[in-house]
Amino acid sequence: MAGLVRAKPACVLGLASGETPLPTYEELIRLHREEGLSFAMVSTFNLDEYVGLDQSDPRSYAAFMHDRFFRHIDIDTSSTHVPDGSAEDLDLACAEYESAIIAVGGIDLQILGIGADGHIGFNEPISSLASRTRVKVLTEQTRQENARYFASPDDVPRLSLTMGIGTILEARALVLLATGEHKADAVARAIEGPLSAMVPASAIQLHRRAIVIVDEPAASRLALSDYYREVTAAKAGLGAIE
Ligand code: GLP
User: Fold this and answer.
1) CA torsion angle for 182, 184, 187, 189 (degrees, to 10)?
2) Each residue's pLDDT tens digit, 188-211
3) Where are the alpha helices (DSSP H) in the chain?
């Protein structure tokens, strides 16, 4: 990400909320503070947001991004975009989000986390692989997983706005991050399982520049991990990984 920002100062980053990318944001903040990495011309688009939470609500993804990343760097906050889950007309807000991405020339690099059920953004199982930004009903599993951010599980919104899988696949490069044993099954199904709407993250198999970064526990159910190590070693120093 830092390399992209240096090479293309007006680049467009697709960002994810959740715990997984936090060390990434922390490192970018460090590079900003200590090495002068500037985000002054960068635009960002986040994957998703809860419906019914205002951007000032501390439980919203908009507030999360501001608190954990944007306020620590020199980005112009008018260039940071998160779907508006408090909009009166949600369908219109989704259509405008798609238009805003197109207006800046598309997303250069999209960061993705992965849900234990294989979701990316809030694209829950059986999401259309061609879907665009829209309203999605959250599964009970996702609401339980995200309950830690709310006073009680009943407080977790039932609806979300999320970039569609079709929207995500249009980014010029994808980087999926996963850490921890609880993600191992979803990671294996996304990378090595059949392409299936039941595992929305498996859609990254369709992208020609998708990079997956996992720790050992998240990689523990991969069948071909020895081969991936070989490939990584063979490609070291060869430049861009296709
Ligand atoms: C959440 C978010 C996703 C996120 C995923 C994993 O429900 N909607 O965008 O990538 O689940 O979250 P975490 O990184 O906290 O495990």
Assistant:
1) -110
2) 999 999 999 999 999 999 999 999
3) 2-7, 22-35, 61-68, 90-103, 140-145, 165-169, 184-192, 225-235
**16, exposed or middle or buried, with CB in 10 Å at 0-12, 13-18, 19+?**
buried
Does the Cβ of 140 fall within 6 Å of ligand 1? no
User: How confident is residue 239, by pLDDT bands cut at 50, 70 and 90?
Assistant: low
| Active-site residue, 84 included | no
pTM: 0.96
**Catalytic residue flag (residue 66):** no
Domain map of the chain by residue range? Answer: 2-238
The CATH code belonging to domain 2-238 is 3.40.50.1360
Looking at ligand 1, which atom is closest to the CA of residue 183? Answer: 16
Give the pLDDT score at 112. 98
Residue of 49, 84, 108, 124 with catalytic role: 124
| Closest atom of ligand 1 relative to the 17 alpha carbon | 9
